[in-house]
Write a structure and sequence with these properties.
This protein has 394 residues and is an alpha/beta fold. Helices cover 56% and strands 11% of the residues.
Length: 394
């Protein structure tokens, strides 16, 4: 691999950021973010939309043509083909993410497992889909994982149920190994995360000996996750497998703090954003320094962290397209990061959620709320879109 030339990335280059969007798509994004910028609509929209869907009012088409179209690839893998091609035209890969969640039924878990395997099979041999992903709560009951984390005794039936969860997890990861397609296991709430971590480490022991296949996710807004990542890396080195790391800041902060307060235990969340930023950036430094035995996906919409990783790779003489380093963002957000990084030769992929509109609604509502709760996210997206509209004279 050749080392890409060192050049400063301009994350304000909207021509590159929106090169893959037509004028119509750019205008649609403008109006969507204008609507999302209204806190009132973001708060009241989800319950109203859910109510209308539940009583059978015909709003599915409207949702699919607006917020769903912006943040999701489609309802099926086949419907994601346009997005896959559009992203790859800008040298950005796709992470197919079957985003159905909150189910409780064993038949649904079996179907979800089979669907995740279909994403891996679709990705096999296609450089446009370099990584896949799943959530353990997609293939197992939340309350069961919660009981395991709490170290409570399981009934005979629950033991058998958890055996099925482990079988599904191994079946997914074995398919990933056989097809040569890396798979990330997402982080979830702290009160089920120890069980997820245990499952994921076991999968790495099985499948990460020769090459990177399985990644665990470390939420750096937790005050214990930087040290946990380092400890896991030491374990991996001792036992002879590659540690797969996806570092993110995190996605459940308000819920975590509320539960800790209600149940009277210390909050697992960092005391402030600066502490999360510090640990996230420290995780990047550690990962770059151990690039031979640790592969990582930098999952962030934070411009400074993206710039830091870019600089670290240059400082350590690591090629921009090193197979152990990926940047990742969500579809419909931070195109200025994704496409400018890919234009500079870095490995970049977008999470592309898909699934039935009604089943994906919880994901869509979180995206809308995230854009309003993250300081400046919506205004940043809007300002870049406006800048590109002016450049195009729209």
């Amino acid at each position: 691999m050749e080392l890409s030339p060192k050049k400063s990335i301009n994350f304000d280059d909207t021509e590159i950021a929106f090169r893959n969007k037509s004028n119509g798509e750019l205008n649609a994004a403008y109006w969507l973010f204008k609507i999302i910028s209204s806190n009132f609509l973001t708060r009241t929209g989800p319950p109203v939309a859910n109510f209308m869907l539940n009583i059978g009012l015909p709003i599915k088409g409207l949702i699919k043509k607006t917020i769903f179209k912006h943040f999701c690839g489609g309802e099926t893998i086949a419907e994601c083909e346009h997005t896959i091609a559009q992203l790859y035209a800008g040298k950005v890969g796709t992470i197919l993410d079957y985003s159905v969640e909150g189910e409780e039924d064993e038949q649904v878990f079996d179907f979800t497992c089979a669907e995740i395997i279909r994403t891996i099979e679709r990705a096999a041999g296609d450089p446009r889909i370099p990584i896949t992903v799943f959530k353990v709560t997609g293939i197992g009951r939340f309350a069961l994982l919660e009981k395991l984390d709490a170290k409570q005794s399981l009934t005979t039936a629950e033991e058998a149920e958890f055996g099925k969860v482990k079988q599904r997890c191994e079946k997914i990861c074995r398919t990933a190994f056989d097809k040569g397609v890396p798979v990330m296991i997402d982080a979830e709430e702290t009160w089920i995360q120890d069980t997820i971590d245990m499952l994921t480490m076991d999968m790495m022991r099985l499948f990460n000996k020769q090459r990177i296949i399985v990644y665990n996710t470390y939420q750096m807004y937790r005050h214990d996750k930087l040290s946990g990542m380092i400890t896991d890396h030491e374990t991996a080195q001792q036992e002879g497998f590659i540690l797969g790391v996806k570092m993110v800041r995190g996605a459940y902060m308000e819920k975590e703090r509320k539960r800790a307060e209600e149940m009277g235990y210390p909050s697992p969340i960092q005391p402030d954003k600066g502490s999360s930023d510090r640990d996230f950036d420290a995780s990047l430094r550690y990962a770059v320094e151990h690039i031979d035995s640790l592969a990582f996906v930098c999952g962030t919409h934070n411009e400074e962290s993206c710039r830091l990783l870019s600089n670290l790779l240059n400082e350590h003489g690591i090629s921009h397209n090193h197979p152990h380093v990926y940047f990742a963002q969500l579809l419909g957000m931070s195109d200025n990061l994704s496409f400018n990084l890919s234009d500079a030769g870095y490995n970049v992929a977008k999470y592309v959620p898909y699934g039935p509109v009604k089943a994906v609604m919880p994901y869509l509502f979180r995206r809308a709320q995230e854009n309003t709760s993250i300081a400046g996210q919506t205004s940043r997206e809007l300002s870049l879109i406006i800048k590109e509209k002016k450049r195009r004279r729209l």
